[in-house]
């Protein structure tokens, strides 16, 4: 005669169900997070250039909206969702912050992930 421990079998089944549930939730959560990292609902993404354009590094201005905008030796950390492309100059995308209104105080070019060089107008030009 074989004596079965139904209490032990019940605990084994419950642990198996719990483990399977945890693995499923972990897989779903991890899968969603890895498919769209840092995606806060915005689908727009601007790829950074491999290297910043030489004319920018040489200090040449962008001509935009009737003004000359000169590169500043600094950058701001912005997400793609925080900027809006207003033009392209010499093959480089030019952005403003989405919150900005005309007349703009700064315009930007992207040179690395979340790094945007800013440009400012000079009054004597």
Question: How would you describe this structure to a colleague?
Answer:
The protein has 125 residues and is α+β, with helices and mostly antiparallel strands. It has helices at 6-35, 54-57, and strands spanning 62-64, 67-77, 83-89, 92-97, 107-112, 115-121. The protein is built from two helices and six strands.
Strand line-up across the major sheet: 1-2-6-5
Question: How confident is the prediction overall: mean pLDDT?
Answer: 81
First-last Cα distance: 101 Å
Whole-number tally of structural domains: 2
Count of beta strands? 6
Order of helices and strands: HHEEEEEE
Instruction: Please describe the biggest sheet, giving its number of strands, its sense, and whether it closes into a barrel.
Output: 4 strands, antiparallel
Helix content: 25-40%
Described by its quaternary structure, the protein is single chain
Poorly predicted spans:
28-36
- Into which percentage range does the β-strand content fall? 25-35%
Q: From the helix content, strand content and strand pairing, which structural class follows?
A: alpha+beta
Given the structure, what is the number of helices? 2
Whole-angstrom Rg: 27 Å
- 3D shape: elongated
Features:
single chain, two-stranded antiparallel sheet, alpha+beta, 125 residues
Quick take:
The protein has 125 residues and is α+β, with helices and mostly antiparallel strands.
Per-chain topology:
Blueprint: H1 6-35, H2 54-57, E1 62-64, E2 67-77, E3 83-89, E4 92-97, E5 107-112, E6 115-121
Antiparallel strand pairs: 1-2, 2-6, 3-4, 5-6
């Amino acid at each position: 005669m074989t004596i079965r421990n139904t209490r032990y079998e019940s605990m084994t089944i419950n642990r198996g169900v719990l483990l399977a549930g945890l693995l499923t939730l972990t897989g779903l959560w991890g899968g969603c997070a890895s498919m769209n990292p840092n995606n806060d609902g915005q689908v727009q993404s601007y790829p950074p250039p491999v290297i910043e354009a030489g004319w920018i590094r040489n200090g040449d201005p962008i001509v935009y909206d009737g003004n000359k905008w000169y590169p500043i030796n600094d950058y701001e950390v912005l997400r793609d969702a925080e900027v809006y492309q207003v033009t392209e100059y010499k093959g480089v995308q030019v952005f403003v912050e989405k919150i900005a209104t005309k007349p703009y105080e700064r315009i930007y070019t992207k040179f690395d992930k979340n790094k945007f060089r800013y440009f400012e107008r000079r009054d004597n030009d």
